[in-house]
């Protein structure tokens, strides 16, 4: 598929937009990176298709086969490296119309108001410093290489 209009996800996977810690991993047609917005939760990562696919239903067979095992490995690394109790997976795609899967760690200390889908409702006060976002992302990437 071509890029019909400016697309943040295409910019991230093709390196036109740089995020803290950069692209952590490329595998199976996907790139792993931090949330492109201020993040309220340590280790919130996003797995984005390298191709401009609208959503899950537009992924190709090879991408679909890679997606599940890859997401599960990332989640395991988020738990191992960061001590997350649980990891949420969200693919919404109403705003950014390019396939991306949010992999959001939930910790013992995560406040009720940031649990589940409420993680998208963090305020400016919740935003973690970029260094912390980058450090957590690198720790997950490191755990995946083990
Ligand atoms: Zn795109």
Q: Please, could you describe this protein's structure?
A:
This protein has one domain: HIT-like (HIT family, subunit A, 2-Layer Sandwich), CATH 3.30.428. The chain has 3 helices and 5 strands; from the N terminus they run H-E-E-E-H-E-E-H. By secondary structure, the protein is an alpha+beta fold. It binds zinc ion. Residues 3, 7, 9-10, 52, 98 line the site of zinc ion (ZN).
Task: Note the main attributes of this structure.
single chain; 146 residues; alpha+beta; HIT family, subunit A; five-stranded antiparallel β-sheet; 5 strands; binds zinc ion
**CATH topology call:** HIT family, subunit A
General shape? globular
> What is the H level of CATH, i.e. the homologous superfamily?
HIT-like
For the record, what CATH class applies?
Alpha Beta
**Main sheet characteristics:** 5 strands, antiparallel
Helix content: 25-40%
Note the beta-strand portion: 15-25%
Helix segment tally: 3
Low-confidence stretches: none
Q: Which structural class do the helices and strands define?
A: alpha+beta
Q: How many β strands by DSSP?
A: 5
Strand order of the largest sheet: 1-2-3-5-4
Overall mean pLDDT: 96
CATH-scheme architecture = 2-Layer Sandwich
Give the end-to-end Cα distance, rounded to a whole number of Å. Answer: 35 Å
Ions, cofactors and other bound molecules: zinc ion
How large is the radius of gyration?
A: 14 Å
Q: What is the number of independent domains? A: 1
The arrangement of helices and strands along the chain is HEEEHEEH
